[in-house]
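Quick look at the format.
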Amino acid sequence: MIHSGIADEAGRPIETQIKAHQELGWDYIELRMIGDQNLTDVSDEEFERVLGLVNDAGMKISCFASQLGNWSRDVTGDFDVDKEELARAIPRMQQAGTKYIRTMSWKQSNATLEEWKDEAIRRMGELAKMAADGGVALAHENCTGWASEGPAETVELMEKVNSPGLVVLYDTGNSVGYDKDTLGFLHGVIGRIAYVHIKDMTKEADGSSHGVFPGEGQSLLKQQLTEILRSGYDGVFSIEPHVAAVIHEGKKGGDPEALYESYVKYGKMAMALFDDVRGAA
């Protein structure tokens, strides 16, 4: 088992992100935002600086949390944006020794359901070939996109693309946030999971949802983790708190010290929860 986390939720400077993971005693870090840019968008010089600091800290990058097919991109939009981002990312992943890069499967926009499905599968096939040729893999998260509509769609995407360049990234909290059946989604993909995000969410009476500390929400987190471990999964568990910072909502957090402390607290609580579930698993 490997503990990691999307570290910009501790702070945007890479130095702050590394410090948080050092305090948690983690050897792996998942990188998304460095300052105001995604890791895939920073200059080559900035990437070299970031990677040098990560290496000097004795850490490895577990995943590039990219923008591929995410909540900011329509399935009817310019696909070259995704291809160019992946083309930039692959040599950086090779240099860092990172296997996974997160992807989603595009917003529907004004496409019909059938157009959304067909184009998402087509695009993912092309990206997966690029990834496989580069010795890396797209990790599709159950978040935004056609394949996140349900476990059947996720499985269909995996089977139709049928490539070592595409795997399943399962987020424990997204079903609550997107009004899906949490255990139903998990059971539909559990044998295919290659990477896990730890998130716990609560849905309010007005329909809004927000992240809470692990074990305090409606995501049945303890049960999910128990079942994931029982399935034989022994890979990365990467926290994505969404407590003080939610990147896709523009919520960067207020006080930097409070942001940092909430991330470290989340990581410690997640590790404690794992201690509780290991026996049951």
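Next, a different chain entirely:
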Amino acid sequence: MTPSIDAYRQVRAATLRLVDGLDDADLTPQSAEFASPGKWHLAHTTWFFEQFVLGTFGTSYRIFDERFAFLFNSYYNAVGARHDRPRRGLLTRPSLAQVRAYREHVDQAMADLLGGSLPAAAGDLVELGLHHEQQHQELILTDLLHLFAQNPLRPAVRPTPESAAPGAVAPPGWVAFDGGVVETGHAGAAFAFDNESPRHAVALRPFRLATQPVTNREWLAFVEAGGYADPQLWLSDGWDTVQAQRWQAPLYWEFADDGRTRLQMTLAGLRPLALDAPVAHVSFFEADAYARWAGKRLPTESEWEHAARELPVEGNFVDSGAWAPRADTRPAAGLRQMFGGVWEWTSSPYVAYPGFRPAPGAVGEYNGKFMNGQYVLRGGSCASPRNHLRASYRNFFQPGQRWQFSGLRLAEDA
């Protein structure tokens, strides 16, 4: 199904709203090899439409700048050479104004294309491109947070009002599931990425899932109990990473001058640690160690999806404007905060489902070639667009990465 012009414009406009008020100085630097400049994200998502849609179906389309294909290709080997990822922050040119002009040029051509009759293959690529851009909307925010956290001034990407003091937070509980043979993977005609299919049967043992994600308050107990100093809690590679990186707490946790008050760098600047909000910016290694310390485990991705299958996609998303995990003060009623807030690590390695086949051509490189050495996260975060998510959505990162809004929910065998 071909997205409408309005749907296309809504996604593209949402991207620009994320960087409203920021300039070249904010959107050019690159804080780490795993991150990218905001300006690069704005251009790369535009190149995607130019390369895969307009380049094939825009019969009268004029390339904005032939050099941009080299600068803004991410990892698609089938379409040619590209600029080295670790050097994206050196691209002082093109300027932000030129990148905005590039977006306007492609947007006009896309509006012309969407105003006509398109073959189904073109419509599928447009839809993929919009979901691809929504992924980069989240990356823009997480990469900006990482960049601004390197600045001793601890500036805000966008100031937000101080949140009101939360009400009583329900104590954690458990929801039991019988297990058995269940279906997992995407079903239906709505959009999904190729790595969410084929739908297939999975045998689950009876299990229980925590009603809510692990909070900062609970994680603080792990820190104060010496969790980062106990090698028996950690996988071998995790312990090596703790030692090499000198981890003592989640990324962005800091101490105030009094040595006791804990702070956290957020997209709104340095703020007091919200104790009842879900813990964020922890790696798979940390999540696994915490679960072991708590006497529990991480859920498998099939357990998580089975538990979430009938739940509405409701929660704290980028659309709320909060741009930070928040405490849930609603009365306890089953599973809470399954969507939004923080991505939840699972114990499942990111591998292909039985019968998976990548799409032909360059777009087949989108997900399939990363099915090695990574772990699956589920649910979405406070930086995710709500209409981008579903129960079958599979996010994935390397086990040592923690600059994303990644947290955890505990599980146990029943």
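The chain has two domains: 5-149, 174-413.

See the schema section for token definitions.
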